[in-house]
Design goal:
The protein is an alpha/beta fold and 238 residues long. It folds into two domains: 122 residues, Rossmann fold (3-Layer(aba) Sandwich), CATH 3.40.50.2300; 101 residues, Winged helix-like DNA-binding domain superfamily/Winged helix DNA-binding domain (Arc Repressor Mutant, subunit A, Orthogonal Bundle), CATH 1.10.10. The chain has eight helices and eleven strands. A five-stranded parallel sheet has the order 2-1-3-4-5, with helices on both faces. Strands 6-7-8-9 form a four-stranded antiparallel sheet, covered by helices on one side.
């Protein structure tokens, strides 16, 4: 059996790209993208994906009606994406054949965690690389699976892009990483100027450091890049 294929349907192209980049980094390599209901139906018929992430609001139809139509072709898990979070909306989604409901704005890692959970129930999780989910560096912990940042035993709000950047450092502790590599690995391309990374690093320091002006963890190596400096004993993951 091939690795699971995932269809993501959303007319917001940055959201499509964000979910795709996150899925690729989590070991998925067969990802289909659609920005309209008609395109989604064609991809379902041609590729028969193993799971579908479906936006409720589309330019040519609504996700509920589209899900109802998709159910005539396949019974694979369907995860709704929507900016609405009322109970009535959720019940409506489930009544049209949806299996899960994710509200916007969302952490892309939460989307991936739910995708993995549904694939596991379908018996396909073994085809996805199993990675550690919690990084514990003493003063702060990063929970990859839940998308939570815990600092000094308290949960701290961490926007998606900052979370992805910190996650990358946590996966590569005590390694010097250049700005160019950060752009490529975290943003997926050479994106913006030097200030882009600098601003995100500064915001992360304000969250994880005891004194952000004298960072003990996320350090700058002048002219070369950045390094997440952690004790050897804290590199173990759970």
């Amino acid at each position: 059996m091939s690795r699971p294929s995932i269809l993501v349907v959303d007319d917001d192209l940055p959201i499509l790209e964000l979910i795709k980049i996150t899925l690729v980094k989590e070991g998925f390599n067969h990802i289909l993208l659609a920005s309209s209901g008609q395109e989604a139906i064609q991809l379902v018929q041609q590729h028969n994906p193993h799971l579908i992430v479906l936006d409720v609001m589309l330019p040519d139809t609504d996700g509920f009606s589209l899900c109802n139509h998709i159910r005539t072709h396949t019974n694979v898990p369907v995860l709704f994406l929507t900016a609405k979070n009322s109970d009535l909306e959720k019940l409506q989604g489930f009544s049209f054949g949806g299996d899960d409901y994710i509200t916007k704005p969302f952490n892309p890692l939460e989307v991936v965690a739910r995708i993995k959970a549904h694939l596991k129930r379908a018996g396909l999780v073994t085809y996805v690389e199993d990675k550690p989910t919690t990084f514990d560096f003493g003063h702060f912990q990063l929970e990859e699976k839940t998308g939570k940042l815990i600092v000094h035993q308290k949960q701290v709000e961490c926007p998606a892009q900052e979370f992805k950047l910190l996650l990358y450092f946590c996966r590569h502790p005590n390694q010097l990483i250049s700005k160019q590599k950060i752009y490529r690995e975290v943003w997926g391309e050479f994106y913006g100027g030097d200030s882009t990374v600098m601003v995100h690093i500064r915001r992360l320091r304000e969250k994880i450091e005891i004194n952000s002006s004298q960072p003990a963890y996320l350090k700058t190596v002048r002219g070369l890049g950045y390094i997440l400096d952690v004790p050897e004993g804290r590199k173990n993951l759970s």
